[in-house]
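Side project, low priority. Logging it here so it doesn't get lost.
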Amino acid sequence: MRVQNIKRSSIWKIRLSTATMTLIPAAVGINYVAKAFAEGLKLPVWLGTLGTFLASMLAGPVAGAISGFINNVIYGLTLSPVSTVYAITSIGIGIAVGVLHAKGWFSSAKKVFVSAIIIAIVSAVISTPLNVIFWGGQTGIPWGDSIFAAMIANHIPVWISSFTDEFILDILDKVVVAYLAFFIYRQLPQRMIRFFRDDK
């Protein structure tokens, strides 16, 4: 029982070791480039949490949350001010990925799909109030916002319409990112993975 409690609590610990201090800016860079790439090509996904996923999987939820938060702030200050608003969403995503990974939900392709849905729900729940407060319920992705507009035209409440818009986009985005992170993680040397695991 004691061993189980120690294992459970260890995922929340973060040591500012050289490895972690190197991982966080690397994860921020991956997030930044991936999001800029998606926006530049006007893709129907954001891709801006790939680095957050990898940081959470390697070093735990705290490292992932920090990576996501920093990326949103930097991206907001340099390319898109809108991004800063969603820094809190990235914190939630980092925590969700880290916890799910620690519990074995990134151990197979089938489990990754379930994890992506859970993470999409977390993201949508946090983002929906922000969408409503700042953008009238829209997400900024044209095809998603067309769903929002259609629901509003049919007198469906703004909060439900906004959540539906966000959740549909989040499912697509998080499934793509989750599988990208899953395949990248599986290609990493076991020595690197053990290095971060032993550092917790």
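Brief comment: Confidence is low (pLDDT under 50) at residues 1-7.
Revisit when time allows.
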